[in-house]
Amino acid sequence: MSGRFAPRPVTRTTVRGGDTAATGSVPRQSTPAPSARTRTWTPPGPLDLALALGPLRRGPADPTFRATPDGAFWRTCRTPAGPGTLRVSAGAGVVEATAWGEGADWLLDELPPLLGSLDDPSAFVPRHRVVADTWRRRPGLRLGRTGLVLESLIASILEQKVTTHEAYRAWRLLIRTYGDPAPGPVDLHITPSPRTWALIPSWEWHRAGVDSKRSVTILRAVRVARRLEEAATMPLEQASARLQLIPGIGPWTAAETLQRSNGAPDAVSVGDYHLPSTVGYALAGNRDADDDAMLELLAPYAGQRHRAARLILLSGRTPPRHAPRMTPGNIAAL
């Protein structure tokens, strides 16, 4: 498969009571589920839903995301049209999607880009054996775009300079406390509105283990949420510059956000705690590589450096750990 493509003809219907939802694996709400919209879409080549949607999940207990035993993926978000819940599954080369809420039509319209329809894997040329081997074993890797900046930006800010466990805990507590119940037959939540984020009291950030630097950065971001959302349609360099106008948002946070909101294939997470050593070890046997060394090694993949980094992470070739892991903090106990 190569190049960009337009979505194939789709089938879209309205059903009542969420009848197309996963059976038995997702608890239903006590109240009747609202009307659902459905769509089928045929991707033009191999597609791995777990690889396309996995980066949107913030920990195993993410209140906005769920993978169920029947192979379906559930995602909630606050779309420009309102809150929505999306269920996606695949079989026999066809993707089936069901959506609930005010944002249902928006979610179904944006389904192909979410699953990588705007991604161009033909532009990628492996330059190292480990990358080529993983590329061959993972033909369904597609870089999807959500088209939503703020949800990824806030989650990325929460992940600044802390362990993933701390960041996931903060995300989980804040979404469950201040997010709205998701529409549809699932026990999930929608991320808070910008106004709600702005009204969270300081002691609640503290209880979630979020230090003042990160909470203040989030408050700055939600005050200009509309301007930040415009970055979803900008070229990478311009979008990154727009995000970094906010004090507290640097290259790492911008890259982590745009990888998801824009599906940016060249957004490298410079400043990551583990990525330089992982790239250095996989491509050059250097587990002490820093950001500069990582960028030098990824230079042959200019324009596709994020895809190359994803493939390296998927290869499983990681450096042996000799140094202690980052020690979790405990702000909430102070």
TrEMBL record:
Residue runs in coiled coils: none
InterPro entries: Alkylbase_DNA_Glycosylase/TA, DNA_glycosylase
Keyword match DNA damage: yes
The UniProt record lists the keyword DNA repair: yes
Annotated keywords: DNA damage, DNA repair
Region described as Disordered: spans on this chain: 1-45
Bias (Polar residues) ranges: 22-41
PANTHER family to which the protein is assigned, alphabetical: DNA GLYCOSYLASE (PTHR43003:SF6), DNA-3-METHYLADENINE GLYCOSYLASE (PTHR43003)
Protein name in UniProt: 3-methyladenine DNA glycosylase
Organism, scientific name: Streptomyces chryseus
